[in-house]
UniProtKB/TrEMBL annotation:
<dbReference type="GO" id="GO:0009228">
    <property type="term" value="P:thiamine biosynthetic process"/>
</dbReference>
<feature type="region of interest" description="Disordered">
    <location>
        <begin position="1"/>
        <end position="25"/>
    </location>
</feature>
<feature type="binding site">
    <location>
        <position position="100"/>
    </location>
    <ligand>
        <name>Mg(2+) 1</name>
    </ligand>
</feature>
<feature type="binding site">
    <location>
        <position position="282"/>
    </location>
    <ligand>
        <name>Mg(2+) 3</name>
    </ligand>
</feature>
<protein>
    <recommendedName>
        <fullName>Thiamine-monophosphate kinase</fullName>
        <ecNumber>2.7.4.16</ecNumber>
    </recommendedName>
</protein>
<feature type="binding site">
    <location>
        <begin position="178"/>
        <end position="179"/>
    </location>
    <ligand>
        <name>ATP</name>
    </ligand>
</feature>
<dbReference type="GO" id="GO:0005524">
    <property type="term" value="F:ATP binding"/>
</dbReference>
<comment type="pathway">
    <text>Cofactor biosynthesis; thiamine diphosphate biosynthesis; thiamine diphosphate from thiamine phosphate: step 1/1.</text>
</comment>
<keyword id="KW-0784">Thiamine biosynthesis</keyword>
<feature type="domain" description="PurM-like C-terminal">
    <location>
        <begin position="208"/>
        <end position="313"/>
    </location>
</feature>
<keyword id="KW-0418">Kinase</keyword>
<keyword id="KW-0460">Magnesium</keyword>
<feature type="binding site">
    <location>
        <position position="84"/>
    </location>
    <ligand>
        <name>Mg(2+) 3</name>
    </ligand>
</feature>
<feature type="domain" description="PurM-like N-terminal">
    <location>
        <begin position="82"/>
        <end position="194"/>
    </location>
</feature>
<dbReference type="Pfam" id="PF00586">
    <property type="entry name" value="AIRS"/>
</dbReference>
<feature type="binding site">
    <location>
        <position position="98"/>
    </location>
    <ligand>
        <name>Mg(2+) 4</name>
    </ligand>
</feature>
<dbReference type="InterPro" id="IPR016188">
    <property type="entry name" value="PurM-like_N"/>
</dbReference>
């Protein structure tokens, strides 16, 4: 699940003015110019530049005409956007399916993220969930709800981010449909599909005592990036500031980039499955929380080696949003290149330890970690 800027919406998203309809597989909330004026103060794309066309000023067809050319086709697609539903090939006879939401406020701040960042991250977090099952991502369906005052360039930027992420991390995966609507807070919901290519899915429940615990991807950088943004990317009143955030990103590109536009090791999901991974999952909410979920599902304990967790054990265990792959392998297995061993599975069911000792729990809980601000 996504765990981004954890501090969102004091106001629950509500339906905006206008009639909602669905045509040709893509729905759109038809807002009025009056609705746009009423929500102008919450325009997520406002930059102070000359006014540009907003969603309220465009027809559904005009919006789609700006989006579709920017989106990648899926290699498995038999019928893409334009009908009531897409049609995909399923060579394996099975689909891996996952979904994830990003909501302005709890999951991202418009002052910190570019539209391209949002599209990229919305794709990346779903691709990672597919990879964690040992599958190869094949297609995305994307729903976007936005204030009617949103400039069309914001939606175009999101589409560009979706395309670039798919092309970079999961070539052959494309966007095959979706939905558009209106809301008070910008919201992205992505459903991803994957192909197991004849393999069995890798579940959370297969680890056994004696397995090695291995990680692919970064650990703690995204959490560090979020801390930096909350510390230095806000004004004197604690409000997210775009200029300050840009300066933070320039100074700490690795950490802030890991938070705003992560690059999960998608190819290593199928590689782990081929190598005999006994269990695997995506790291979204922090290593401590997610390892606990795997341990509980498998009926094992997990003991991490402190020297494998980096300089900040607190961030490594509780930072969240790393979107790496946590996997277990038999002790005699060859761990795939790109994974590094960070611990072992034990017979202490459900326990998560560091060098045999308990550690304070950290991580992200969407119902406790958001302060109600939109940003």
């Amino acid at each position: 699940m996504t765990t981004a800027a954890k501090t969102p919406a004091a106001n629950s998203p509500t339906a905006a003015a206008g009639e909602s309809r669905t045509e040709h597989g893509v729905g759109v909330g038809v807002g009025t110019r009056a609705a746009a004026a009423a929500t102008a103060s919450t325009n997520p794309g406002s930059t102070g530049a000359a006014p540009e066309q907003t969603l309220a000023e465009l027809s559904e067809g005009q919006v789609l005409a700006r989006i579709f050319p920017r989106l990648p086709d899926a290699a498995t697609q038999l019928l893409g956007p334009g009908d009531d539903a897409a049609v995909l090939r399923a060579p394996d006879g099975r689909f891996v399916v996952t979904t994830d939401m990003m909501i302005q406020g709890p999951d991202f701040r418009m002052a910190w993220s570019t539209p391209h960042d949002l599209g990229w991250k919305a794709a990346a977090t779903n691709l990672s969930d597919v990879a964690a099952m040992g599958a190869r991502p094949t297609a995305l369906v994307v729903a976007i709800a936005a204030p009617p005052s949103t400039p069309i360039s914001v939606i175009e930027g999101i589409a560009d981010g979706l395309r670039d992420c798919c092309e970079a991390l999961a070539p052959g995966c494309g966007v095959v449909g979706g939905d558009l609507s209106a809301s008070d807070a910008l919201t992205l919901a992505v459903t991803a599909f994957g192909d197991l290519e004849g393999r069995e899915p890798v579940l959370r429940s297969g680890a056994r005592p004696g397995d090695v615990v291995a990680l692919a991807g970064g650990l703690g950088e995204a959490g560090a990036g979020l801390e930096l943004l909350f510390r230095h990317g806000v004004d004197a009143n604690g409000v997210p500031d775009a200029a300050l955030a840009s300066a933070v990103r320039e100074q700490y590109p690795v950490e802030v980039g890991a938070q705003l536009a992560p690059s999960p090791p998608i190819d290593l999901g199928p590689a782990a499955a081929i190598a005999g991974a006994t269990a695997m999952m995506d790291l979204s909410d922090g290593l401590f929380i997610d390892a606990g979920r795997l341990a509980k599902a498998s009926g094992v304990g997990i003991d991490f080696a402190a020297d494998a967790l980096g300089d900040s054990i607190g961030l490594a265990l509780g930072g969240g949003e790393d979107h790496g792959l946590l996997a277990t392998f038999p002790a005699d297995a060859v761990v795939p290149e790109g994974f590094r061993v960070i611990g072992t599975a034990t017979d202490a069911a459900g326990a998560v330890l560091v060098d045999g000792r308990t550690h304070e729990q950290g991580g992200w809980d969407p119902y406790r970690g958001w302060d109600g601000a939109l940003g």
